[in-house]
């Protein structure tokens, strides 16, 4: 029994580790998950959404944001143009040179996608070191924002390139986000309160003796 339980825990930890790594590469390599209007024009990855907001708000230095963008820019450059993206051209590649002057209404109307993108990026980075629920929470927020945008979006927009779209890779992200969560069954059992055992009332037994 001990061998089977230890092997089961090892199998679960392997699944969590693999799912966390796959989710990390989906986010950091900027695999397109969705398409939605943002301050940079049209964003298709959580990092693109996060970077546009961080540069506009000037919370982090620009080199830190470039560090987030660079791995995906290299992969996209090799796949599309067979060239390596230059560090100095990152902001222009992602249309981030004028996001400070862009209207913030676009992001305020899509707060769920913005907050979910923040959590998705943070969860991908933290998940490499330790499994957490941030990636799942962020992915669910993004999905809810996309559903809300699809239901409440303006029907007058007939341009396909400007419409909200969800790529099939989003399903992979959802599966990885849920599979990377660490469940401690023993801890749940320990926290669960024990059922009280019914005991005879002392006063009733004394009254019977009288």
UniProtKB/TrEMBL annotation:
Sorted alphabetically, which keywords does the UniProt record give?
Membrane, Transmembrane, Transmembrane helix
Q: Where are the transmembrane segments?
A: 15-34, 134-152, 164-181
What is this protein's record name?
PH domain-containing protein
Point out the coiled-coil segments of this chain. none
Q: Which domain of life is it from?
A: Eukaryota
Q: Output the PROSITE patterns linked to this UniProt entry.
A: PH_DOMAIN (PS50003)
Tell me the InterPro entries matching this sequence: PH_domain
Q: Where is the PH domain?
A: 1-20
């Amino acid at each position: 029994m001990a061998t089977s339980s230890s092997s089961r825990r090892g199998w679960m930890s392997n699944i969590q580790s693999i799912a966390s790594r796959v989710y990390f590469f989906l986010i950091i390599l900027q695999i397109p998950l969705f398409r939605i209007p943002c301050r940079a024009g049209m964003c298709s990855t959580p990092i693109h959404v996060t970077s546009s907001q961080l540069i506009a708000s000037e919370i982090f230095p620009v080199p830190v944001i470039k560090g987030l963008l660079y791995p995906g820019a290299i992969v996209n450059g090799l796949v599309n143009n067979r060239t390596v993206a230059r560090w100095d051209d990152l902001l222009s590649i992602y249309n981030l040179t004028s996001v400070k002057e862009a209207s913030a209404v676009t992001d305020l109307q899509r707060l769920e996608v913005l907050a979910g993108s923040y959590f998705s990026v943070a969860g991908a980075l933290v998940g490499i070191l330790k499994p957490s629920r941030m990636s799942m929470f962020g992915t669910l927020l993004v999905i809810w924002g996309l559903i809300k945008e699809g239901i409440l979006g303006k029907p007058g927009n007939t341009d396909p390139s400007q419409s909200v779209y969800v790529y099939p890779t989003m399903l992979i992200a959802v599966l990885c986000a849920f599979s990377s969560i660490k469940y401690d069954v023993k801890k749940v059992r320990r926290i669960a309160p024990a059922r009280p055992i019914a005991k005879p009332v002392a006063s009733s037994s004394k009254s019977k003796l009288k």
